[in-house]
Amino acid sequence: MSKTLQAIRGMNDILPHEMPYWQFLEQTLRDLLACYGYEEIRFPIVEHTELFSRAIGEVTDIVEKEMYTFNDRNGDSLTLRPEGTAGCVRAAIENGLLHNQVQRLWYMGSMFRHERPQKGRYRQFHQVGVETYGMTGPEIDAELILMTARLWRNLGLHNAISAEDTETAGSGLVLQINSLGTPAARIIYREHLVKYFSAHHDQLDEDSKRRLHSNPLRILDSKNPALQTLNTNAPQLSDYLDDESTAHFAALCAYLDAAGLRYQINPRLVRGLDYYNKTVFEWVSDTLGAQGTICAGGRYDGLVEQIGGKSTPAIGFAAGLERLVALLQTHTTPADRPPHVYLVMIGEPASRAGLLLAEKLRDALPSLRLISDCAGGSLKSQLKRADKSCARFAVILAEQELATGTVSVKALRDQDQKQESVPVTSLIKFLADAMA
Fold it and tell me: Each residue of 29-56: pLDDT tens digit?
């Protein structure tokens, strides 16, 4: 007997009973982004490897260890996208969306990273990404952050996001912000950071030793508890910020304060990708364990030029859909949308007539949710499936109904409502009244 094939480790099926949460989340995102004037963009899941190595950075964990990279038949090195920003920038440059233009774009889809799978971190995962181009001031930084706060409210993930609140509740979402300054300011800070960590080389773990000279800021983001005291005492980036970045960050904080949005300034908050500058932010939940970051973003004013376009200010964020679904499953219940009607058809003549009747009902009542039983079997077995579907009514069509031009309507959710015979010519009005 052949071996049963299974999904690739870290690449998961999303089953029908989970889909109401996904559909609710995706529709809420679409509605919110439309309200803010953002337009959807779609781009390939496969790009030239050079795009990510140039954008993300050669010495990042993503490029060094996590990308799904392969050579195609032409010998070109291609990579499944590990994140969306680089591909979005490439598409915007290639299609002329950035020249003397302001853009507000969003996308949603699969990303791929070869990591050790764990809850909230998978090898194929889904993200919504929001990217803006052409705006230099802190106003757009504030808009993105305020939009994410509204998203949590629209999703029903109530949390302490008002300055008047005194304690975190619900999903425990906390906004953390920081400024990474300009690349020039970070070079100076990096030198002091390397000097500090080099003096404590024996306390570093292997990952930190590897990052010491290639990407020392990532040491600050280490989740290793043994490094927390060392990181707490490390030089702070805020002490090395340039005047422009300091003013930009102060203005952002003023906007958030005016909106009553509570936040924490986290001087250890850095990004794992090289292209970020100035504002960075994260929303963190206290209910998801180690993978608590559900949304993260920041400015990347140099990336467009780095990839080959003209210098363009930019800022965006990405949110992990799996982690948001996990929060939704804990804190909310999507609106139930069971079928209105389950059509029971007994015998071949009834099946032929029933399928045509079902299409006429759908034409007349576009919002009608109707399931036709195409599996056959006895009246008892079909009614059992009808009840399992959670439909409100079973509409029964058999030999007797065909002969009299009627259908039998059985209420499945109201046991006190008697089964009744309804003329086929009156069925549309009957269902329309029942749905009203």
Answer: 999 999 999 999 999 999 999 999 888 7
Dihedral pair phi/psi, residue 359, rounded to 5°: -70, -40
d(CA 95, CA 104): 15
- Residue 40, phi then psi, degrees to nearest 5: -80, 145
Which residue in this structure is represented by tokens 């990181």? 231
Residue 422 backbone dihedrals phi, psi, to 5 degrees: -125, 130
What is the CB-side half-sphere exposure of residue 401 using CA atoms within 13 A? 26
3-class secondary structure, 295: strand
In the sheet that holds 46-48, the strands lie side by side as 46-48, 77-80, 69-71
| Cβ atoms within 10 Å of 255's Cβ, excluding its own | 17
Q: Does residue 332 contact residue 321 with C-beta atoms inside 8 Å? A: no
DSSP string for residues in 406-419: EEEEEESS-TTSPP
Report field, pTM of the whole predicted structure over 0.90: no
| Residue (of 62, 27, 33, 96) closest to 316 by Cα position | 33
Look up residue 18 and give its two tokens: 């989970």
Top pLDDT among 117 and 182 is at 182
Contact yes or no for 157/273 (Cβ under 8 A) = no
36, with CB counted inside 10 A (0-12, 13-18, 19+), is middle
Place of tokens 């009902």: 361
Predicted pLDDT at 169:
39
Taking 3-state DSSP, the helix, strand and coil percentages for the chain, each rounded to the nearest 5, stand at 40, 20, 40
Q: Using DSSP, how many helices (H) and how many strands (E) does the chain show?
A: 15, 16
pLDDT in tens, 266-284: 988 877 666 789 999 999 9
